[in-house]
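User: Can you help me understand a structure? I only have the sequence.
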Amino acid sequence: MIIPEYTDLAEKETAFGDHYKRIDSIEELKKFLASSKTLRKNIFRGVCEARFKNYTSAQRMYMVHDLRQTASIEWLIQKQIESIKKEHENLLGKYYKSLGIALNDFLYLGIAQHYGGISPFLDFTQRFKTALFFMADGAIFSPHGINEIGNYSSLYFFDVSNKAHINFNSVLKKICETLIDRIKEIVADNKQRQLTNDNIVDLIARFDNYTGFDENLNIVVPYNKKTVNIRVEGLRKKVKGVFSISNLNIVAQKGCFVFYMPKDQFSPLETPLDCVDIHKSLIPYVKEYIKLKKSDIYPDEYELVKDSYIKALRNILN
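Assistant: Let's start by predicting it. Here is the structure, written out as tokens:
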């Protein structure tokens, strides 16, 4: 199955209505960039081709493999999570447990999203310039020409303070309360009064029911609220586990996830987004404005250490 795309700018303007804007000149672009300070409560998403619809990676792969008669998207995601847990429990599990981080489905889905898997997440960022980087990266004119929509890239954003959306804080609080109750039940059943931090991470285990949220609502996962300590009182020794969905890429990008699981599995995310389509001829100006390198967005541990060594060597030689 071919992944649906917007066929022209008129279709896209109809889809976004009053929340749609098009920028065709340097003057319009400068004015928009200058107004970005008014968007502080927004999160952003940049896409290099205006014709692409906002589908999650799970939706895209579901369509590509045409699984309509075989399984649901939820089933596909859950099977991937089960496979990650089974195949990599001695690697990912041990690594995150060594950091005191509780294993949970959101953690695994965040890793899958950023490292080649599928998830019900859409990538957004709290940083305006990071979204512009993603918009500009790969934005080129087709050498064979294309209809008008192919000459544009897109920036999407929406206000996360809007009360129509669930902020992940409240969801996370409920998750933690559920986990703590579960731990207390286990402790009471086993009449156990001494636990180590490793034990508590094992007991926290997982929050598996990621599909238990209302599919009409989007869960915004902010970068700066990525970690929460889970403490269990009433034990002889205070212990804690950490609930996290973070990884190196999401920290570098100041990223956040929007959970998107619509009832119509082929429906792209449009509401409540604002959309600004920017003509690709303006991309060189955008790149000059953002001044970001690929290594700023996709950090590599080896390169980070190697660069540090080279800088140290230069200091010695100088």
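Now, to help you interpret it: Residues 176 and 230 are 6 Å apart (CA to CA). Residues 204-217 have pLDDT under 50 and may be disordered. Let me know which part you'd like to focus on.
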